[in-house]
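My current task is to audit a protein record that another person submitted. Alongside the sequence sits a line of tokens, each denoting a local backbone shape. Please read both lines and tell me whether the tokens look consistent with the sequence. Do not assume that whoever made the record got everything right. Thanks in advance; the entry in question is below.
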Amino acid sequence: MTDAEHEALVADVFSAACTSRAVLDHVTGRWGALALVALHEGVFRFNALRRRVQGVSEKMLAQTLQALERDGFVHREARPTIPPHVEYSLTPAGQEVARRLMGLIEVLEASVPDVMAAQARYDAAKAAGA
């Protein structure tokens, strides 16, 4: 693809064939969003990041970081030491995405009491109608 063709590319996340849909999945999937927001806090080694993102398996975190690195959101730096020293950080694009995800997370966390109340009303209404 030439630079001119690249510049003319129009992304449409609603199109099944658009690359942006896969990238959206990487960013908004449970582990992608949590990894990005955790990395917004600073540079992490793999195991420290895994401890920060509680519940993620080693395999899922590795796959998630690989996808985010391929998409240009995460930078992986491997130092040739024994044992190898690998650190993960955000690229400028990753910082922007993480900043926006943090805003969403803040809204969600602030609305937890309302969500719990809505769930209780829903469950009660379903139980009454059953």
Summary: The longest helix spans residues 92-110. The beta strands are 44-45, 74-79, 85-90. The chain has seven helices and three strands. The helical segments are 3-8, 19-28, 30-40, 46-52, 58-70, 92-110, 112-129.
